[in-house]
């Protein structure tokens, strides 16, 4: 039976699993167990023994951030486990190793990532991550390409969609919190008042924005292009200077690829705008901001390059049948089509990046990039710059043809 595990239960539970007991080592009574979850949904424990450590994640039957008044299915732990297994196969070394899973307890034991930290925390401290671009672009290109119609047969793809179709409660969170609530009066919305009161009201009255966000919502709901991580922000990435691991894919489902790519870009751009609010060391801030924008450009460029390479060399899916693109003329036409596909994906990415930004400033769940700026006036200035960029990206997504158009617009807003 499901029960919420507390320290003593968890100790007994882990001690009862021979492989984990051996991995942790020593006497179970001496293991240290600390609950460290700082996310919005689950419990996360770090357990350390004489020999080693593990991370244990247990889903709660409700949204942790809000409490028992907001029930949430435990099945999300199943989808997270399924997604992690798939990602481990497609992007080895870029997700934590899975050590144990218990469906009934909605509990997963994983490799303890040490000395990794949540990337968002590093970005607030103006840290640079030299491995990040290569790792995240490999992760996205491989997980998105190999779960798409470009790599799967139609039957495989439909089976895969079905395997994640039950994760709709998590999708509903996204549909409400990202694509709807920030644009209407909703009890759970909040923003940096009173400074952003006018901007919040303007969003609620901006019909062009409402059309744009509704198109994105429809795309999110009705475009099962590939297996998404579904919540790929910088709080779902753990880093050191030499390693990157993507964690927490409990929002996984088959959706539009631009949602994952847009999440990464949006969170980098928010780190960029927040940086001015953390200006204790101005020189280092400017260098950090330059690195972030360079990273934004390299993430899109690297992702595109790797995705296209996979398409050119490993297309085994039912989409774009090779028999229709025979000979030199076919090869040239198919290559032009690949470029057009990436351009459409770029437009989606830009729109989703905008949606992911606006939700963190006016919706329920905020991020520490902005929240740790103590002075509300200063925080509001950073947030308003990000919102200005986001509105442009969303309403005029097609006008942004290249990633340099996006970083150029961000740069112009740095001192706005
Ligand atoms: C109620 S859950 C709020 C947010 O936390 C998760 O990390 C997702 O981003 C979700 O939208
Ligand atoms: Mg999460």
Automatic annotation (TrEMBL):
Gene3D superfamilies: 3.90.1200.10, Phosphorylase Kinase, domain 1. It is an enzyme of class 2 (transferase). Keywords: ATP-binding, Kinase, Nucleotide-binding, Transferase. InterPro entries: Aminoglycoside_PTrfase (IPR002575), Kinase-like_dom_sf (IPR011009), Methylthioribose_kinase (IPR009212). GO terms for biological process: methionine biosynthetic process. It holds the Pfam family APH. Its EC number is 2.7.1.100. Residues 33-270 form the Aminoglycoside phosphotransferase domain. The keyword Cytoplasm does not apply. Transmembrane segments: none annotated. It comes from the Bacteria. GO terms for molecular function: ATP binding; S-methyl-5-thioribose kinase activity. Belongs to the methylthioribose kinase family. Homodimer. This is S-methyl-5-thioribose kinase.
């Amino acid at each position: 039976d499901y029960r919420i595990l507390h320290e003593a239960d968890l100790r007994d539970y882990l001690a009862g699993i021979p492989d984990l007991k051996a991995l942790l080592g020593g006497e179970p009574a001496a293991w240290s167990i600390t609950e460290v979850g700082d996310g919005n949904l689950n419990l996360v424990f770090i357990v350390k023994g004489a020999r080693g450590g593990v991370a244990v994640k247990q889903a709660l039957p409700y949204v942790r951030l809000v409490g028992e008044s907001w029930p949430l299915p435990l099945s999300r732990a199943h989808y997270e486990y399924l997604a992690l297994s798939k990602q481990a196969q497609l992007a080895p070394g870029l997700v934590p190793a899975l050590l144990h899973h218990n469906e009934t307890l909605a509990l997963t034991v994983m490799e303890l990532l040490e000395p990794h930290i949540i990337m968002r925390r590093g970005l607030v401290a103006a840290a640079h991550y030299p491995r990040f671009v290569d790792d995240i672009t490999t992760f996205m290109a491989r997980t998105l390409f190999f779960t798409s119609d470009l790599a799967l047969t139609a039957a495989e793809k439909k089976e895969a969609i079905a395997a994640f179709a039950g994760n709709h409660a998590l999708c509903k969170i996204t549909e409400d919190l990202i694509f709807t609530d920030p644009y209407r009066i909703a009890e759970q919305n909040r923003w940096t008042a009173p400074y952003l009161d006018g901007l919040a009201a303007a969003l609620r009255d901006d019909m062009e924005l409402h059309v744009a966000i509704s198109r994105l919502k429809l795309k999110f709901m009705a475009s099962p292009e590939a297996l998404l991580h579904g919540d790929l922000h910088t709080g779902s990435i753990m880093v050191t200077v030499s390693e990157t691991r993507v964690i927490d894919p409990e929002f996984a489902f088959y959706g539009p690829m631009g949602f994952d790519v847009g999440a990464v870009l949006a969170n980098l751009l928010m780190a960029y705008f927040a940086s001015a609010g953390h200006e204790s060391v101005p020189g280092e801030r400017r260098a950090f901001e330059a690195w972030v924008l360079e990273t934004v450009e390299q993430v899109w460029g690297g992702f595109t390059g790797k995705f296209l390479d996979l398409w050119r060399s490993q297309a085994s899916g039912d989409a774009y049948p090779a028999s229709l693109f025979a000979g030199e003329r076919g090869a040239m036409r198919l290559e032009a089509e690949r470029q057009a596909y990436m351009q459409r994906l770029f437009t989606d990415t830009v729109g989703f990046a905008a949606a992911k930004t606006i939700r963190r400033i006016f919706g329920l769940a905020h991020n520490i990039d902005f929240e740790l700026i103590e002075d509300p006036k200063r925080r509001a200035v950073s947030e308003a710059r990000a919102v200005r960029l986001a509105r442009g990206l969303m309403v005029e997504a097609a006008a942004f043809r290249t990633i340099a158009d996006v970083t150029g617009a961000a740069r112009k807003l740095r001192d706005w």
